[in-house]
């Protein structure tokens, strides 16, 4: 999944004279995936508390392309994604074997629990026919990009459209070699406050997933850039097609990255709060514990929830149902570092967790005595940062040159003051200079006087 878009447009806007819009700017993007390996699947099936062990990260580098600019103050583009495994950055490899819940069985059981009992028995028999159990023990590569399943083949053949992918079933199968939809955003020409603001997504100016107009709004940018001249009171609103909603980050602190000043923005505690804790989020319900976003309405009605990793910033009761979770902000909080003058992201780390709501469903024997629980399956981090020549260009254009200009203007001010002072001194000196001496003699009879103008002398001759 992806919650921010490619920074290539950002650099084209910022350094338009340096980088052609069609070029693929070398900004590295990575997705790190962590699996929650279930240590006691048999005990879970008997109603005991799940025990999990985090495995990973399994790191993938991904690329994006097909970004096109138009001359009408908007940019329309489809962003295609392809993922490539990076063994040197990973802890383990794609051949590692892990055990996670089987979404095809446990997810379907919850979705179909209101059907007649006889139908549920038939569904259970179908699972047995295709040898689908409540848990999957597969390699990382199979779970990520798809594995062979007779049930999947059957559904794709006789019930097309039931599954999100027409090929193999995998957690990320529908995201590899796919696109995020058609975005149309403003360039900011004519009104810099609208730079990168989303005009529409897939032709829509609002969504239809949620229960209130406010929750269905497409707010903010597409996640590449925000309006310049940001303050600590500014927020970062953006639309995420993978979260099926608009999100908003808030200021946390100031800092710097390689000499470049930045503001760090993080997710507020209310981002995934339920409607009871935060009333504006009522439109995202039906809700469970606070800290969970129910995305079933945009994910084929499957009982899937998004949260922060390890249930960070969520209701503590969620930690009581699963052993092995240890949330903390440094490892599990998401953030975006922004250059406040330009609104350009310098460093991005988006961390989200995928959870499956599972429980015992009468008639579907594969669910056994499973206790009702929101079960963490995986969490992933998507990260990107400016590096290489872009850092130098950014630092030169937005740090060094402004500093040089600032010091230069002070130099010109000092030079101007010196010229003014010199002029005043010259003028004052000219004003106080004595006039030339003038002498005149006056005689009266035998007495003569010499008058000297300028020094008021009077001499008797």
Automatic annotation (TrEMBL):
Would the keyword Cell inner membrane be found if you checked this record's keyword annotation? no
Q: How does it sit in the membrane?
A: Multi-pass membrane protein
Q: Which domain of life is it from?
A: Eukaryota
> Does the record carry Zinc-finger as a key word?
no
Listed name of the protein: Scavenger receptor class B member 1
Q: Where are the transmembrane segments?
A: 407-428
Coiled coil regions, renumbered to chain = none
Write the record's keywords in alphabetical order, separated by commas: Cell membrane, Disulfide bond, Glycoprotein, Membrane, Receptor, Signal, Transmembrane, Transmembrane helix
Q: Which residues form the signal peptide?
A: 1-23
Under PANTHER family, the record lists: SCAVENGER RECEPTOR CLASS B MEMBER 1, SCAVENGER RECEPTOR CLASS B TYPE-1 SR-B1
- Per the record, the major location class is membrane
